[in-house]
Give the backbone structure.
Amino acid sequence: MTGDHSVVLIPVIFFTAALLVPLCRRGSRRWPYWVALVSSLLGVAASGEALWRTLSTGEAIHYHLAGWRPPMGIELIADPLSAFFCLLITVVTVFVLWHGRSLVESETPGKAVPFYSCVMLLLGGLSGILLTGDLFNLYVFLEISSIAGYALVAIGDKRAPVASFRYLILGTIGASLYLLGVGFLFMTVGSLNMGDIASVLQTRAMSPVEISALLLIVLGIGVKMALFPLHGWLVDAYTHASSTATSLIAPIGTKVAAYVLIRALFYLFDTDLVREGIPVMNALAVMGAVGMLWGGVLAMAQTDLKRMLAFSSVGHVGYIALGIGLASPLGFIAAVLHTLNHSVMKAVLFLICGSLRQKLGDNALDSMNNSLRLRMPWTMAAFTLAAISMIGLPPTAGFFSKWYLVLGSLEQGKWHWVIVIVLSSLFSVVYFFRVLERVYLRPQEGAEEEPAPARDESRPSMLAPVLILSASLLLLGLGNVMIVNHLIRPMLPAGF
Amino acid sequence: MTVPEFSPAFWFLAGAVAMLVLPARARASAFLLFPLASLIHIWFLPTGVLQAYAYLDHELILLRVDGFSRGFGLAFSLAALVIGIFSLRVTDRLQQTAALFYAGGSIGVTFAGDFFTLLIFWEVMAVASAMIIWAGPGRAAAGAGLRYLIFHLFGGALLLAGIVLLWHGGGGLEIRRFDAAASPAVILILLGVLVNAAMPPLHAWLPDSYPKAGVTGSIFLNAFTTKVAVYVLIQCFAGWEILMWAGCFMALYAVCYAVMANDIRLILSYHIISQVGYMIAVIGVGTEFALSAASLHAYNNIIYKTLLFMGTGVVLHAVGTTRLTDLGGLARRMPLVVALYMIGAFAISGFPLFSGFVSKAMILEAMGENGGWLVHVLLLAAVGTFLSVGIKLPYYTWFYRESGLEVKPYPAHMPLAMAILAAACLAFGMVPGWLFAWAPSAVEFQPYSVYQVVEALQLPLATFVAFWFFRHKILGEPKIALDLDWFYRKSAPLWETLFITRVNRVFSATQDILDHWTEKAFAFARNPARLLREVPDRFDANLQRADLGSNVGLILVVVVLLTLLSLW
């Protein structure tokens, strides 16, 4: 019986694994991989159990660390929102690790032990952020996950250390802003427990100090989330990290930051004031919208597939921010649904980058032509499906989150957001069709003389996760009503 | 007989999946099973809303049967079946899969009861038909397919925008007849549908892509996309007067280009547009009789147009080219094909005793009663139809002179498929009652009156006589098909300056503006960074990387700015 302990088990599993991995150094070369994979699977089981329990009882699960009661002690909370995010990141991790079984060793030889250890630390930190009910504790987990993230990025190609250094500087600034905000709050409210703070803040008007605290928290997390124009670290970090590291950080890192934003804006502070009193929601929407366009425009220009996807991530973070910025039930649904969809889409795309890199040596767009279609038909089919979903054509998953976003904007009569959404979708048509056109239509140089390339599909351990994830895009699309009604609606904060 | 109540589109979708796994030998024969199953299924389906799910706060209606959808569904299934017989030798997995997806999408639209379902099947059609074009030979097909897909995704986007607006307006998404008092939502939906109907100036995709698909590919393409659009127009836009004008314009415009075209498949492609023009014009009339005329003409058109395309398909299969100036004198090598083609040609030209006569007479009757002088435009277009499809195409392809081309033998199932369709053309022409049985509402109409027969005969006869006198001029020199210069230079130079030069100037000015902006758009997509500062044409990631200091500065600026704004 796990009882109530399943909540605390999630980070504990990962932190234990982070310690276990270095101990495997003496065993078989495969041990670090298996330790990481098994702990992620355990993580999936524990988060799934927590999600199931909180959904079926309709109440959040509270766990008091070491039996200390809040507001003095630290509590972990699994409500539908946090348990759902936990499940999402652990599931994505399982697929990424599976795909990376041989890739990690071939791309970064000899670094498997630190790599898997950092992955486990990252996961421990991220799940801690998701579950904690204490603002300062959240900062601690944020730093754990960030430092693991910097290290993961640094285990990459020749330029990775520099990219990681930029990430470190900017990430630290973001974390400091957050900490400053928490400090301000602690000064006026006198508590660090989220429930405690919420009960105080929602009964009285907020003082300027508290408003500043809110802004600092939002912007600090905005840096972690790579919200335009605070995204300076993202592109280089994603481009130069190893394939597996990118496919892990890209789908889940920014999403956890988005979670913190949702948690802070909708659960912590007085929602009416946040929505109407100060322009923070509008600012989020504007930053998101500009980011959608900016990311799309720069993605069109890139000559490297991985870098292109990194810029498209900047754009898609914008979708989530816009959804949050609408501050309505539909916007909330759009933001959470897009978090889910984008995690899966980006995981597929970055995993395919890894598969291509193993076959071609790099991700340069110029070297791609229709021999790829003949060599790796299944991988390319998965890429196409994910690209269609990114563009947002029905019935793939990507369409429905945009659909909710459009409905949410129309509901408030905000036509300009609809135009931005359509424009950014058009941009994504351009940059994905640049790739698809090469892969399916552009003939190889001197193709007449050479025989057609033979089938050269990536190995099953890399193909299977890609295919399963991309097929799930169709399922997520077709089942979106069920997801929204049974999963996301129970998350809606009480104010709505 | 009771049948399971699901959309017949699923037969085709199941078939498409089956094509993916079946071995090459079994595929072509197995292909026939799915249209056949759909045909029988539709035949026995009762009328009404039969399959619906609650979805996204509204009803997703997958199967709604009425007189129109039953007729169109049967015609589409029949076309898919017969084209399947024609393409029994095809072994290309991509084309077979795409063809079934495409037909499935069309049937799905036909039986959809709400716009959301319609949109999904609409996009399936767009993507699958682009695949069919891509299955065609050579680089031309690749480029044309891409242009085709972009055009149709644009059309789909218009449709989607209209649907979103409709939903937002609270009108519900059920497919229904819209009032002529137009809202932006309805206009957007109309435009999206007109892209598929190839309404000029949204028609460029059709003559661009259909002649570049493979032998069987273009046959498949001709039967579905435009007719699905006609179906949607009948259901939603009946009685919109503007459609009368648009349809007549379309009929005449496309015929002019067909007369000038040099590729036999291009001629037929333009005739698709022209024939759809007839249907759209009469949809604009909007009476019950007019709608029956439009749908019966659509069924007939699916049948004889497929027959005509099959004729050109056999030519392409046998000699490897469809350029009119290269062809000639092939009749002795394929007499049966010529005979079957001519049945189709007489049908499209509306000769008495052929199916086109009956439905065209209905259209002229409906237009004559409600459309005033517009009916004469349609008569004029009929002259061009007979001139290009009935005389020019067969004469220069199969007779005229010996081209000396090597003729490959063609398999017997090709003329067999043509014979099935030719039989239908004759049967519907001779016994109009059999055709009327397909009509959505009871039709009381006697096509074989003296006046109508005489009118239907004298126009083509006069055309034929005129053609015979000019037969050596019309083909022109080997360079291009038809030198229209010949007509106007001899007759009146004034006309040339007045119409040709001026019109050309407008067109070329428009073209220049378009080219300019296209070039700009391309340059922008290649390297958007150029908008911001002077950089080389080729994008370089290292030039665009802001230094760390600017990033830190930017974060601080945002923090300060937002704090100021909030605390003001």
User: Anything to note?
Assistant: Chain A touches chain B through 47 residues (CB under 8 Å). The radius of gyration of chain A is 22 Å. The first helix of chain A runs from residue 6 to 23. Residues 295-445+452-496 of chain A form one domain.
